[in-house]
């Protein structure tokens, strides 16, 4: 089973600030250096947009560790609300439960469920569906 975490951030000034905050969370949860996480997120965004819906981003961090998972973040930035689903994965040894979850959630109905999460218990219900 993969890890899942939820964070509500009431106000960030920029996407870069959000990425710095979440990089620190990823570092503590997955034993990856925060600066390495931030570099991976930034490099991925340079390749092209990670936006997959209205105010919904799907940044991901590929690494060679065994622990894999998601961090769902609902946040307020510049007077609007947005959601990011950070995915931490090993593409060589992709967790089958994570793959199944992503396959079932990355559609309009699934994104709406994630947008409406308000706590870890809500996220747990979605993961266990």
UniProtKB/TrEMBL annotation:
For this UniProt record, the keywords arranged alphabetically read as follows: Membrane, Sugar transport, Transmembrane, Transmembrane helix, Transport
- This protein's record includes keyword Transport: yes
Q: Name one Pfam family in it.
A: PTS_EIIA_2
Q: InterPro entries from the entry? A: PTrfase/Anion_transptr, PTS_EIIA_type-2_dom
Residues that span the membrane, as ranges: 77-94
- Write down the superkingdom of origin: Bacteria
List, alphabetically, the SUPFAM superfamilies matched: Phoshotransferase/anion transport protein
All copies of domain PTS EIIA type-2, residue ranges: 9-129
Protein name as catalogued: PTS sugar transporter subunit IIA
Source organism lineage?
A: Bacteria, Bacillati, Bacillota, Bacilli, Lactobacillales
